[in-house]
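Pasting as-is:
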Amino acid sequence: MKAIKYIVLILFGVISINVCAQNNNSERFAIKASAEIGLGNSISSNSYISSLSSKATTGSYGLDFGWTFWSQKGHRLEANIGVAYSPAAIELELGSFDYNYGAPATADMDGESYQRYYEISNLHQKVSLGRVTLPIYLTYGYKCNGWFGLHADLGVRFGFKTNATISEVSGEAYSYGIYPQYDNLLIDESYLNDFGTTNLANAGYGTPVCNGFSTSVLVGVGAEFSISKHLGADISVRYNRGITNLFKEQYSGQDFTNASAPINYSVSDGQQVKSLTDYLSSSKVSPLSLRIALIYRF
């Protein structure tokens, strides 16, 4: 019996503790359907642009399977493994920002290279992310009475990116170029269809660069309430430490003068503007969340 216990623990990769109420000691298995909501501003970020601000919401919806491998006098140890889908929505705001780059010869009508300048104002960008997460944790629990118990969680959570899209953009971009063949005179003419002012609403979007894999340590405390003989409800607070680099580092500073444009999406008339997500050096999910679950024990 002990060998089976150790094999199951190794298989689950468990490093967690979860205290659960139980209706009777014969219940060895549990199915837990849960929803988890991020608390506060769920994404914090570092950026090369000091005026860039962000706010976000996160959530998680999943199903866990638990196996009680030890119980005695109201105490229980339980191994858990599950799967969940975790969507996130991040809104980025920027009042104004300027940058420039050396455009290649192919960008010009007569095959000459030139310097292009951008002035961005009132830029708003919304990014939608999705991840599949695999929580693996242990359970220690104390049954206070027939309908109420306390629990504490300790484990790990693995995350895998499923999608990342720029779902909304608004703001304005004004661009112009300096051409060496015209003795560095400022050129701003309507026939250059990628110059002038462009409204960025309904632009054609690129894909934000996001880390495809993440890992965090899962810690939680909460209470379980009995609803019927086998059905219970659980409310807990969880702390997921270690989910970092949701966005990868792209550049080492604010100097974007180079041979190719630092571009992620463009609008229909050819005006190009860099995605705000590329200016994030790093970001991370807020570690604190509220979890509500329905539990069926058998």
